[in-house]
# Entry
Amino acid sequence: MSGRLTIALVALLLGLAPGPPAWGQDKELSPDSTLAGVLERGKLRVCFEAGYLPFEMVGTRSGLRQQTLRPADERKGGQNVKFGGFDIDLAREMARELGVDFWPVNTRWTSIIPSLTLGRCDIIISGMSVTEARRRQVDFSEPYMQVGQTVLINQALAEEVAAYSDLNDPKYKVSSKPGTTGEAAVKAFMPKADYVPFDSELAAAAAVADGEVDAFVYDRPFNATFVAMHGAEGLIFLDEPFTDEAIAFAIRKNDPDFLNWLNGFLRDLRADGRYDKLRGKWFDSADWFDLYR
# Structure
C-alpha cells in the first residue's frame, strides 16, 4: 500500500460493520485525507451557523438562541440542544453513509472558514455560496443547490421601491450580514445605499419589519422562509433573485479522496430520491415551523 490505507483495512481496524461502504472497498484512501480522520474518530464534525432558515436552526425546546453555543458542544447549561434543517439532515445522511456519528460545530459565520482550516471541523455544510475568494481558501464539492439574492423591504416603501436597483440611493438603509454574498450584493448593486450590517439574519429581517432599516438583502430561501414563518406584516418580499449562486460543501484544500467521496454521495442522494425527500420536508412543508427557529 506504500503509505496509503485501503478503506477496507481502515473499516476493519475501526470495527465498522461488514458490507461495502459507499465508496467501495477496492479504493485506496490517503492517510492524510480528512476521511481517514473521520473514520478514526468515529465522528463527522460539521461546521455551520444556526439561524439560516431553513438550512440550519436551533430547536425551540432547546431554550437557546443562536450564538450561545460553544463549537462542537451540544450541551449548554445542562440542556440538550437540538439542531435541524436541510443542511443538518444532509450532514446526518453523510455521517450515516460513513458509519460515524454526526458532530455539530455551531460556529460564527465570520470564523467558519478559519475553523475548518484549523481543523476544528471536517467540513462546512452551511449554505455556503461558491465564490472565487472562498475558492482560494477551501475546495468545494459539486453544488447541491442554486440560490440567489432577494430583498425584503419595509411596507412603507411600497410605492417607491419596486426593484433592488431602486435602493441604490443614500436615503435608504440597506442591511445584510457580514461576510456573506448578501453583503457583497449590496456593495456591488447598491453602492450608494447606507449599508447597515447585522450579525444575525433573523435580527436583520426583523429590523425591516420594525422600520429600523429599509431593506434586507439575502438568499431567497431564507427570505421566503422568514416571510412564511413570521408573516408578511410590515414587509414586502421582492422575491425575484437578482443573482445566481451555487452552494456547496466546503473542505480543506488538496483532499481529492474526500472531494471524490462527497461528489459521489451527492449523486447517490439525488439518484435514490433522498435529496428530493429532504428538500420537500424543509422547503415545501410548514410542519416544522413550531419546532425550530
